[in-house]
Amino acid sequence: MTQTVVREPVAPLVEVGQAPVVIRFEPVIEMTSELFEQFCAINDEMRIELTAERTIEIMPPLKGDSGEKEADIIADLKVWARVNGAGRAFSSNAGFTLPNR
Questions:
Q1: Is 23 helix (H, G, I), strand (E, B) or coil?
Q2: Model confidence, pTM
């Protein structure tokens, strides 16, 4: 049986256009990929990134003009990738685990 968890809406941690909020866990807690995935899952309303230094950055939403520019770039890149066939294009929200973790 699957249990549904209902959460109350959360006020945004950062406002549009602000610098990211940086959260450090180490050396108290080792931020593994699995722990990071769980952290993101329970905070799915936020844009969260894990840096190479294993710190978490809560990213603010883009302003309208920046979001439009990002959309233009992604559209152009996706069209180029399809026509050229030499690569793939992803949005800025795609997550990857690199070989060095």
A1: strand
A2: 0.52
